[in-house]
Specification:
The chain is mostly helical and 94 residues long. Helix content is 86%, strand content 0%. It is built from 3 helices and no strands. Keywords: Isomerase.
Amino acid sequence: MTDETLAQFRQSIDNIDAALVFMLAERFRITKAVGRYKATEGLPPADPAREERQIARLRRLAHEADLDPEFSEKFLRFIIDEVIRHHERLRDEA
């Protein structure tokens, strides 16, 4: 492998990382709107049934994509926990 090849691989990784950041930012913009809606409607910050469905769905997708389902679940759980924290803060500010 040449330095040029490694540089190309790394450029692709950097592009993917940038896309992930922008996708996460968009996801959190939407979940913030959901949190405001829940706060004004008196809905709980967490929805365990939906979380379970989403985790199962992501595990299936990970399996289809040849990605470790355990990793994908940990990743989604991290995001869900952060969203719930934001929703709780929005509820407490309402």
